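ENTRY TYPE: paired fold submission
RECORD: A
CONTENT: sequence, then structure tokens
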Amino acid sequence: MAEEKQDKIEEQKNIDQELKKSKTSEADIPKSHGEILKQQIVEGQETYDKNPVSILLSSLTAGLEIGFSYLLICAMFYFLNGKVEEDTIIKALALVYPVGFIMIILGQSILFTEQTSLLTLPVLNKKRSLVSLLKLWGLVILGNLIGGYLIAFLLVWIGPRLEIFDLKTIEKIATHVTQYDNIVILVSSILAGWLMGLLSWLVAASKDTLSRIIIIFLITAVLSFAGLHHSIVGNVEVFAGLISSPAISFLDYISFIGLALFGNALGGFVFVALLKYRAFVYDVK
């Protein structure tokens, strides 16, 4: 046992030494795996060090800002409805879906799915505990959900009055999101979480704002086009349906949000733990 513990300590020292060696690349040289990992760990630890009230407010802001994706989804669906086939409209929504994500990530608000893998890294690197990770996840989720509730109430009220969409549009979008079996929603959410973990990694690898916008657009557009379930966007979509239509029940909402949050978290964690962090660790050994 003592030898095994000592081996783990030595392994962690080697990992930390390799990360310290990783220096920022020149502008025209791609970042190495170690450089990206170091940046992600540092950014993750900075989030842990923030005041809980600051984290909650930033998370709430992200929940509100993701509502702009939902606003455009509803407006585009309503505008195209009856002019083209409904399945074509659903796919075309991928063009406007990324807007809220671009606002959030460039504005550095805290979005649960984008932060899932980032906040996991300090735990894997033994700089933070699993308990502290779960507490931080809980705070971020709470802020994201509350922000989503607030923007959903606002958009359900303002949309029909501006005549940019109606309550039937809200119902169609909500039922489209929740129409699948639970196992399908879970696996879809895992894939979405995986993609969001990849998004966080690629944004860290990029060196200018334009590149980041393109990366955010591509990844989130793929997520939308494929119909994968994102817990925070889905929170607004399904909650808006809950408060405006009898077609969505409270049980539908609870079932969806529970599965989506769990799946997104699992996808982001597996992406980092198995495919990125462990790849670096095995290279150090």
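RECORD: B
CONTENT: sequence, then structure tokens
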Amino acid sequence: MSKSDRRGVTRRALFKGAGLAAASGAVLKPLEALAKEEGASGPRVQGPGAVKATLEVNGAKQTLEVEPRTTLLQALRLPLDLTGAKPVCDRGQCGACTVLLDGEPVYSCTVLAVEAEGRKVTTCEGLGTPENLHAVQQAFVDHDGAQCGFCTPGMVVACAYAVAKHGKDLTEAQAREATAGNLCRCGTYPHVLKAAVAAAKEG
């Protein structure tokens, strides 16, 4: 390169070119090679086809074959036939699909099934049975906390979390905070809050 050519190369152009070269190399490198570089303890490459995933749902281990893009909500409803969690908005806004993941409430439509491996999943079905209802489920019956029913499973799970967290000292304000991410088109919020507080006192 002549002296005049060198003058035409700026520091910005030099670093920009080096960055593009490195980026293109990373993109073109096969996934298998990247997986080997990560080593046995590194991230696992999954997909594009179905993969095996073992989930602990309501105390029982379930081994499924799911595509990596399958959400926890889809896995619960279709292969496992746990239809309590509802696919209402499917974008993490309504709370109808709320479940407990390691004891914390999450929107199951925003969690991949493969992300739930090795973690405990509890759905509204896992809180109680028709013969032995959870205190929150019974309180929803006693205080008319359910109307159309679409939001009810998520509301029940959110309230169960609040009861477990605060115990008998649960206040209506704390119950309102726990269910802030759960929408009810029927507007039955007052009954839901009364049910949560009543369930806490029963506990």
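NOTES ON RECORD B: The radius of gyration is 25 Å. Helices lie at 3-7, 11-28, 31-38, 72-77, 135-142, 152-166, 172-178, 189-202.
STATUS: closed
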